[in-house]
Amino acid sequence: MSATEYSVVSRSQHETLVQAAYQHRGYEAEEAASAARMCSEASWNGIRTHNALKALHLDELFGSGGGGCEPGAQIDVLETRFPSVQKWNANKKLGQAVACEAMETCIKLADEYGTGTVAVDNAFHYLWGGGYVMDAAKRGYIAYTNCTSTLAEVVPFFGKFPTLGTNPHSWGFPTTDAVGYPVVIDWATSEIAMGKVEQYKREKKKLEQPFGVDKDGNPTDDPFEVVALQPFGRHKGYGLGLLIELYGAAIGGSLPTLRGRADEADGSGEKTTSTFFFQVTHPEAISSGDFSNGRSQAENITSVVKDILGHGNESCMLPGTIEANAAKLSEEAGGLLFTEAEMDGFLELAEECNVDPTMWNRSRLPTFSA
Amino acid sequence: MSATEYSVVSRSQHETLVQAAYQHRGYEAEEAASAARMCSEASWNGIRTHNALKALHLDELFGSGGGGCEPGAQIDVLETRFPSVQKWNANKKLGQAVACEAMETCIKLADEYGTGTVAVDNAFHYLWGGGYVMDAAKRGYIAYTNCTSTLAEVVPFFGKFPTLGTNPHSWGFPTTDAVGYPVVIDWATSEIAMGKVEQYKREKKKLEQPFGVDKDGNPTDDPFEVVALQPFGRHKGYGLGLLIELYGAAIGGSLPTLRGRADEADGSGEKTTSTFFFQVTHPEAISSGDFSNGRSQAENITSVVKDILGHGNESCMLPGTIEANAAKLSEEAGGLLFTEAEMDGFLELAEECNVDPTMWNRSRLPTFSA
Question: Chain B residue with minimal CA distance to A253?
Fold first, then answer.
């Protein structure tokens, strides 16, 4: 592959613009700053599918533009008799702000009880689950989150009609001492993302396998025929997608086929919001303290990872390696790396939000080839 | 398919024999009874791959016969400052007995704190993770368990050498009010089980896809060439298998490639035992209480499941349906259903353990066609 030339943008310049864009839509400074910080994190770690432009586009479609998200909303912490688990009504507050706060709360609870859990009702899209668990894992915790996706796009195993979200699971494990970065396992429960299908359409290519479902409910590898997605890994990915719907149903979510579809739900009395589930475990809480050859827990994790990636498996990656490599590039470049098309998007955004657009002129910014 | 004729054996007759067989190998009455009860549960729910004969065979190979399990061992509950998470040294106690006790402890902790967790070091194979989460889910709890499998048989994604166990995850969700039985999601993180490969060998059939890996590390669908297994669902199943190795490493487990291989580990100072992780969540702890159209939490779960299996998906199964259907057959037959080959195995076992073998004479037992 030939190298791409990126513009290098500092985190602060990026976050100033993104925060302004959220505030321009009516969000308050603090929640807008949370969202902007998570957008920086996504771009720093090479998650191009969840950058600020995507976040703002989703907000327009489903969030402050679509009634799914309420700028300035406050979280209600609901009463409970269970000290290590909190339940929140997010009142459709901006997802990234809610998720950052939920993860902080889980960490505090885990410090006290061993595990901490926060279940969130009336939530709006938190965008990149991997970011929250990565952050907690970098701070030394085992972290997990799941959320019901805005739209039902996935069919059950052997099913015909999409009744499940692409429902992502995200796990972070504190392996920085072992390998230099946290293991982050973070994926949707569909075989591919709907965005990927759009990309195959643009490139006029078939999908690698019949990962889609056509209008009659038959598997298809033709992106132009795809109306819904298969769960990944046959019945196993189906189970994992279903699990999040069950968590959602237990927390307060409603019918998956009406989620994110306020117009269709109108008059039905059914909620259309998503739910989040967060959990953090303190690694000391599960440590027997008895590791082979006198190793510490961190050293033991290092030995196990080395064993897994030894024996001829040296070229295998850990989940989280791609993000860590991207972060290394950002570090090297000294900022966030954006393509020409992305820079055009930001320039447009700056003009829209009355942020000085000259700062977003590509000719005035350093470049980086990668 | 033509119907099979099964012998019908009462649970108590079955458990008497299985308990005697464990005691014959030196196990104490209480732990032997736990194991026997879980064998009954497996057979009642149609889990033929984890019946008593398999359990006793594994014990012979890796357990009391192979040094992996110590009859009469006692669990040490380790000191901790975290009230909702316990850590145990199982001292190689029989896995089923440890798992039953761990799940009970998780339930007690969840009743008090919202979630309860037990991490177990120096564990020996608990056989059927689905059984423990099914039991907790029938009692109204959300339950989860994972364990590192005895042997490393799975290669990392794009790997050549098996350095991961088939490491199963098991989730149980309290959906009895919704659908008549709990959702039980329970599978290994390999594409198929090694036992399935043996079956294909006997039947001289190719695997459906190249689910195996040959001696040179290449994918293969020829069961005779298979020396290791692929993780299911590409990088996603790999992540899920890896996650259990990381939990194991944090708890106290050692190198995956030496696990269950005491001879190879001899002199290395490395432990060869498995680890378990159990967690229970009280569904009230995550309930916002705000369900659409005034539904209760259970009614809401019913509505969500109906939505998922509606819209043309009526013929789809839930994870747990197969087990529930098998349990229905057992109920109808009035006992556990065993094939002729299984009955021969039990008869042999009865003779070996000085249990009256006449009770295991097929001609003296009722039969059931299914």
Answer: B291
Domains observed in chain A: 72-190+231-302+317-325 (3.30.1370.60)
Contacts of A158 in chain B (CB under 8 A): 315-317
Nearest to A287 among B235, B250, B309 (CB): B250
Of A158, A249, A290, the CB nearest to B252: A290
State how far residue B48 is from chain A, nearest Cα, in angstroms. Answer: 19
ipTM, two decimals: 0.96
Give the long-range contacts of residues A46-51, CB within 8 A, separation 24 or more. A46/A322, A46/A323, A46/A325, A46/A326, A46/A327, A46/A329, A46/A330, A47/A128, A47/A130, A47/A131, A47/A323, A47/A326, A48/A342, A49/A193, A49/A195, A50/A127, A50/A128, A50/A131, A51/A338, A51/A342
For residue A90, what are its two tokens?
A: 């997010």
Distance CA B276, CA B58 (A): 17
Cβ–Cβ gap B161/A312 under 8 Å: yes
What residues contact residue A196 under an 8 Å CB cut-off, 6+ apart? none
Which pLDDT belongs to residue B299? Answer: 96
pLDDT digit string, tens, across residues B254-307: 999 999 999 999 999 999 999 999 999 999 999 999 999 999 999 999 999 999
Q: Any idea what DSSP says for residue B231?
A: B
| Residue ranges of B 116-175 with Cβ closer than 8 A to chain A | 117, 119, 121-122, 142, 155-161, 163-164, 171, 173, 175
Judged by CB atoms closer than 8 Å, whether chains meet at B119 and A286 is answered as yes
Which residues of B fall within a CB distance of 8 Å from A292? Answer: 254-255, 269-271
Q: Are the beta carbons of A270 and B292 separated by less than 8 Å?
A: yes
List per-block mean pLDDT (blocks of 10 residues) for chain A, which spans 370 residues: 89 98 97 97 94 94 92 98 98 98 98 98 95 98 97 96 98 94 98 90 93 94 97 97 98 98 95 98 98 97 97 96 97 97 95 92 94
- The pLDDT value recorded for residue A291 is 98
A85 in contact with B, Cβ within 8 Å: yes
The answer to whether B113 contacts A82, with C-beta atoms less than 8 Å apart, is yes
Q: Which two tokens stand for residue A244?
A: 């999040």
